[in-house]
Task: structure prediction
Amino acid sequence: MRIDILTLFPEMFESPLSCSILKRAKEASIVEIVLTNIRDFATDSYQKVDDKPYGGGPGMVMMPVPVFGCFEHVQKLAPEKGRLILLTPQGQKFNQGKAAELSKEKRLILIAGRYEGFDERIRIGLDAEQISVGDYVLSGGELAAMIIVDAVVRLLAGALGDEDSPKDDSFSNGLLEYPQYTRPEVFRDMKVPDVLLSGDHGKIAQWRRQQALERTKKHRPDLLRRNNKE
Ligand code: ADE
Result:
């Protein structure tokens, strides 16, 4: 997969992309991530990318000229058209299902905005899918882009080591993940449940399913209601 990220702050991505699973996936050529600075496409001598909103109001708005210039440049960097995504709190809420859907694409192009938001003609003219990572406002789309990149890349074949698997992850089966334990067997008077030491795989699977259900019922009953509706 190729992921292009259009941003005013490419340096924000350096550390997340150079650790752990994302680092390994890049090194194994499972994913190629290309950062492009929107500011390089500003057309005036001050490299201006934002301006005051027409009609008044607080803050600054991302100008369409540098965003379009940057997108049109990036689009030509690879043969696939790619799936274009604008990060914005006004978008559709991101979840594991969307991560799985995006992981099937050959190319993603993510646009991270700053300031009060995008000039509306960016949304209209680029006809991009709009995604939000949650009902809160970040200072920009960069952290949202990183969340999407991380959630998508770990689903790509070979991104996780052999011993790991995303199939039991929380949300992948509509439930939160069951409790996990590792050594020691007893820690500060808390003992690993006997069933996990029993070696009976049928019983272990049954216990895990039950725990996942109970945990979901307690912490995220909305997931159960949603599953029943679907
Ligand atoms: N930019 C600012 N807040 C955001 C959010 N919640 N999701 C995606 N992009 C954003």
Q: What stands out?
A: The chain is about 35% helix and 20% strand.
